[in-house]
Design brief:
The longest helix has 14 residues. With about 350 residues, this protein is α/β, with parallel strands linked by helices.
């Protein structure tokens, strides 16, 4: 096993102890013996970790824990501190690496073999099936890690690793035609990145969200209009993406679609959807699609596109010691863009 001289003896971070409303304090500070990288794993010294709404769902119990006291966080930017046995040598000690939501797949099922590894029944996830990046170190499987540019800010790279990748897959799932009209419902971390891709590709983007601050950001990033979450967009939509985890918005978005339009629901969790009216919401070949995780190819495509287009990442930074506050701010819609944790020394 290759090891740098900077591997600490202990790991410090946060874990979900008792899932519940964020005001009840579901996160607890933890100190643990530093885990050694297993076969094919990389040990990272964390430079930055994005705070995703999925982390909030896990902390609050909307997403049922798969193991006790899991460290959340799956938008990890770090430096390789140690390389486990059986790693194939893609990464070396000192490399900058990204760890994302998708952590492992079986590689043998029909979904994996058919290019749909995001649907693998035995898929595993960072910060859910294994500890994530709300800590000063993290373990990432080499086969699911991304090489990241050395010349970019770690804080602005972190949100690309889930918010960006999932937003990209959601955009593709929305079947937006060339030069089409896209509606975006909710405008947080993922939405503000997907909107920039759509604008760069020639789409007309209409943002619908309850936050006045988010509406201002949307217009600054090139949206043609920005209204309230339940408002009608100024023109019929070819495609729409629902980023807000609010089932009540599904019929609103479906009714805003033009004929043959598609709504993609981006989140892993959604509150209950009201009864849909066939004539108003589904007739004229309107389509309703979910989005489930991502493939590694999605990640590679998006990261290359983000660098080429020059995606602008809006962030609010928090020291690791205030991870609980970051989640509380996310829950209360006080975060503009993406929240990112950084080591307390920064």
């Amino acid at each position: 096993m290759a090891v740098s001289e900077s591997v600490p003896a202990e790991q410090s971070g946060w874990a979900v102890r008792t899932p519940g409303p964020i005001g009840t304090g579901p996160l607890a500070r933890v100190r643990r013996t530093m885990p050694a990288p297993g076969p094919g794993e990389l040990l990272l010294n964390v430079e930055a970790c994005g705070v995703c709404r999925t982390d909030l769902h896990l902390a609050e119990g909307d997403l049922l824990p798969r193991r006790p006291s899991t460290v959340p966080g799956h938008e990890i930017v770090g430096r390789v501190a140690a390389v486990g046995d059986e790693a194939v040598g893609v990464f070396r000690v000192g490399d900058r690496v990204g760890g994302a939501w998708l952590r492992g797949t079986c590689g043998r099922c029909r979904y994996c073999l058919g290019g749909k590894e995001n649907l693998c029944p035995r898929s595993t996830y960072t910060g859910w099936d294994a500890d994530g990046g709300f800590a000063d170190t993290a373990l990432v499987p080499e086969a699911f890690a991304y090489r990241l540019p050395e010349d970019q800010d770690a804080v602005r790279l972190a949100p690309l690793l889930c918010a960006g990748i999932i937003g990209y897959r959601s955009l593709r799932r929305s079947a937006l035609p060339e030069g089409g009209r896209l509606g975006i419902y909710g405008f947080g971390a993922s939405a503000h990145l997907a909107a920039q891709v759509a604008v760069a590709e020639g789409a007309t983007v209409h943002v619908l969200t309850r936050s006045a601050q988010a509406r201002a950001l949307a217009l600054d990033l090139g949206a043609a209009s920005a209204g309230g979450a339940y408002d009608r967009p100024p023109e019929p939509l070819d495609s729409a993406i629902l980023f807000a985890p609010v089932g009540d918005l599904v019929p609103v978005a479906m009714e805003a679609l033009d004929r043959s339009g598609t709504l993609a629901i981006a989140g892993i969790h959604l509150s209950d959807i009201p009864v849909l009216n066939y004539q108003r919401h589904l007739f004229q070949e309107r389509n309703l699609r979910s989005v489930t995780s991502n493939t590694r190819e999605d990640g590679r495509e998006f990261l290359a596109l983000a660098e080429r287009v020059g995606i602008r990442v809006t962030v609010s930074t928090y020291p690791l010691s205030r991870a609980d506050q970051a989640l509380a701010d996310l829950a209360a819609d006080r975060v503009n863009g993406a929240a990112v944790l950084v080591p307390d020394s920064l």
